[in-house]
Amino acid sequence: MVSDLQGMARQVEAGMRIALPVDYAGVSMAMTKPLIDHGAGDLHLICVPTGGLQVDQLIGAGLVRTVETSAVSLGEAGGAPRFNQAVKTGAIRLMDATCPAIHAGLMAAQKGSPFLPMRGLIGTDVLKNRRDWRVIDNPFEDAGDPIVLIPAIKPDVAIFHAPMADRFGNVWIGRRRELAAMAYASTTTLVTVERIVDESLLANEMSAAGTLPSLYVSDIAVAPKGAWPYGLWGEYPTDTAEIIRYAKAARSDDGFAEYMGGRVLEPAQ
Amino acid sequence: MSDRSSQSILPREILIATIAGLLDGVRHVAVGASSPIPAAGAMLLRALKAEAGEKPVRISILGSVEHNFFTNGSAELFDCAGQGRIDAFFLGGGQIDGHGNVNLVGAGDYPQSTVRWPGSFGSAYLYFTVPRVILFREEHTPRVFVDQVDFISAPGVSDEGVYRHGGPYALLTSKGLFRFNKDKGYFALQSVHPGHDLAEIKDATGFHFEHDAQPQHTQQPDANTLALLRGQVMDELSETYPDFAQQMRADLDGVSAQTALAS
Q1: Under CATH, which number does the domain B2-258 receive?
Q2: Is the N or the C terminus of chain A less surrounded, counting Cβ atoms within 10 Å?
Q3: A41 lies in some domain
């Protein structure tokens, strides 16, 4: 079951819907370069529920057709330069959402339901621009009470990074339950980890509670510091200086190309 | 010492103390990831309540490990708000208009915005479900406070019949404090921060708002509040926002050095 990054990247095909986690949950930055080298384009990215560096780099590499997200930013380092540029030129199709709507769509897929109702949204331009969402009157009320229906979000592939897996393919996700939600909803789940442990994570009740069973995991590769320059909870902090360095470089096409082709993408060990 | 505290209050200390006042009475306040001033306001309220022996205030700082007790991933905050367990939250905005509409998406046309901001985040839900949403934006200019937002991430008011348990409560800027009138759907100027005046605020605000002919000044924190803020709260804050806390301490040293020279 233990694979390599290039082998995992090859499982992504042009036009697929790819779910990627929020910057603090465990982003598999280690997969970014292999995905770009593999070159499958026209991707539909689903940010769970927001995107950052990885999303910006995949857009900058020209692999993205659609971005479904509640936000894209580099946090303290400011706006996401390649995303902002692509919005300005119309190079990507936007499906602006709000965080709980992304969670609702994944939850519907998790349950095998066609949709999930959610509060809020009525009167927003977010709703107005989402033709795929519907508003109905709450059928349990006698009259009125409009409520929004979010259709199930079913990604082809989910990609994330976690501290550890065991040799049976179970992955420890701790309290980052959005990673489980992504895996439940997706056809294929590709995971990079810091390390692989011998003992089953399910053998101990304490670790079992935070474990995503191998049933939902398609492939695992070892990638030490695989979230860098993002941090990984419980393991290492975010390298903000590096993200700022990227943010500056990626303001121009040339700067982006130079950054991506440079010494980069190697964490200091 | 009392001289120093009355003469050298930083503008940001007034913002923090004002936020603590706006939060008075909440049980649980959620604060966004890069929001040191709202976080400091919430921590100040918590310290004041602890000192007074009143019910504790719970603070959730998103993206923080130490100040975040959620165990069900990033969906839990929204579930928590939907259940009515979050009393207050903060929103900024690239544009905010006089009806309390917030735009976090972009300026100009949509989707090809001339200026694109990150996106709506959870605003399109939390504005409906959190009773006390405090709009906080330090930059007080006509490009931020517009007559009408270009994109509604979250609307200030809703039509009758729409589920609405939350919304704008106040708008705090570097120049003044506004309260939102839910029934009328617009802002009223409550107070002007020291060093600013009504004419300046009118010039800097692209929407109409109610105001007294002689608006009052924003209340300054008393000596005890200031001592808590400069001691315990800055210590707590520096765990999550070390750069911000360091900057504020440097600013304070600068102001007190000036005061010492002047006296």
Answers
A1: 3.40.1080.10
A2: C
A3: yes
Residue A267 lies in a domain: no
Mark yes or no for CB contact B119/A83 under 8 Å: no
Residue B181's contacts (CB-CB under 8 Å, 6 or more residues apart) are: B187, B188, B210
> What pLDDT shows up at residue A108?
98
Domain borders along chain B are 2-258
- pLDDT tens for each residue of B107-137: 999 999 999 999 999 999 999 999 999 999 9
At residue A267, the pLDDT reads: 61
Domain that holds residue A223: 2-97+155-258
A79/B117 CB distance under 8 A: yes
Rounded CA-CA distance A147/B163 in Å is 8
Length of chain A, in residues: 269
Please indicate whether, in this complex, the C-beta atoms of A178 and B75 are within 8 angstroms of each other. Answer: yes
Q: Is the peptide bond before B36 cis (omega within 30 degrees of 0)?
A: no
**Residues in chain B closer than 8 A to A22 (CB atoms):** 74
Q: Are residues A139 and A40 in the same domain?
A: no
Residues A251 and A162 in one domain: yes
Predicted-complex ipTM score = 0.95
Closest CB to A99 among B63, B74, B114:
B74
